[in-house]
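Researcher: I'd like a candidate sequence for this fold, 325 residues long. If you have to choose between options at a position, lean toward the conservative one.
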């Protein structure tokens, strides 16, 4: 049994990969790490341990401060059992959307790998990542099942539109890996904040988050290094098109990952004015959206994908922030 990481795992380091040999060395290191340190959801998570039982009334499910609804007077005035149930619904929905995103991601990765030539170092790593994402989907779905809640995940129309994502690598692998970062960075950002908030967390949720963070660090690193290696080699017109598409993809993905689930709002009859106060008119919530794509925004700036025109798109999508000095 491989125990879950005991502390918040450090992010994979970025390296300069201008040379093909340096890039290849990074991919081979990530592949080796996937062999040396990985987790099996039905081996390494004690699902049937009494301490891991999912009780919807457990106060540890109450929303943390990172979710702005948790501090609203309406939420604080609900009975303790209702506050816990809302928090559990929120966690379960995030996991359901996460497994749906990773389903799209796995199909896209396999479409990408299908065309890779013999000897490509990316092939092995992409299969490592696909296997790990499959494990994540299993542990997310198992968690959702154990809540007993009618969790749907993505809204139906959005789920239908999302089916185009696995085909993006056939058009642009660079855009596909921007899409990958658009789904993985916001969740990684929130999970790291949750684990550092000093609260007592349910051991099942905490174990799943720690495993997810540890393995997603490699997935995020691969996407970043792939873009560092490929984007500078793209023709100018394709870099421009990628620069236009990137903020559109990232803005939409961040909201999908972090927005309150409509089914939860309806189920618990959360008043529209509360939703507006917490998520629509709340500067902290807007900043959370911006911050969740901060590292990808910095990468896009580094790669020359942000100019006077594309910066306007970042602002229009609500995800622009001035680069750090």
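Model: Candidate sequence:
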């Amino acid at each position: 049994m491989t125990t879950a990481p005991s502390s918040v795992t450090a992010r994979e380091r970025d390296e300069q990969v201008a040379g093909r040999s340096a890039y290849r060395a990074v991919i081979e290191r990530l592949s080796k790490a996937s062999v040396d340190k990985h987790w099996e959801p039905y081996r390494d998570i004690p699902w049937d341990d009494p301490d891991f039982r999912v009780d919807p009334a457990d106060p540890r499910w109450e929303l943390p401060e990172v979710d702005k609804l948790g501090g609203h007077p309406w939420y604080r005035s609900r009975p303790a059992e209702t506050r816990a149930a809302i928090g559990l619904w929120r966690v379960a929905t995030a996991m359901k959307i996460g497994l749906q995103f990773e389903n799209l991601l796995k199909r896209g990765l396999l479409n990408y790998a299908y065309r890779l030539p013999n000897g490509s170092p990316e092939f092995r790593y992409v299969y490592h990542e696909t296997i790990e994402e499959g494990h994540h989907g299993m542990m997310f779905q198992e968690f959702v099942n154990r809540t007993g809640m009618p969790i749907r995940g993505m809204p139906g129309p959005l789920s239908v539109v999302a089916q185009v994502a696995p085909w993006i690598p056939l058009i642009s692998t660079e855009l596909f890996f921007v899409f990958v970062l658009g789904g993985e960075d916001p969740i990684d950002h929130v999970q790291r904040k949750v684990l550092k908030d000093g609260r007592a967390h349910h051991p099942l949720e905490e174990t799943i988050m720690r495993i997810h963070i540890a393995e997603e660090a490699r997935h995020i690193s691969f996407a970043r290094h792939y873009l560092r290696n490929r984007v500078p080699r793209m023709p100018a017109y394709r870099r421009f098109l990628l620069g236009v598409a990137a903020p559109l993809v990232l803005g939409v993905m961040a909201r999908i990952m972090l927005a309150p689930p409509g089914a939860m709002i309806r189920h618990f009859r959360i008043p529209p004015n509360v939703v507006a106060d917490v998520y629509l008119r709340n500067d902290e919530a807007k900043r959370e959206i911006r911050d969740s794509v901060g590292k990808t925004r910095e990468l896009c700036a580094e790669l020359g994908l942000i100019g006077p025109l594309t910066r306007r798109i970042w602002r229009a999508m609500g995800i622009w922030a001035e680069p750090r000095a």
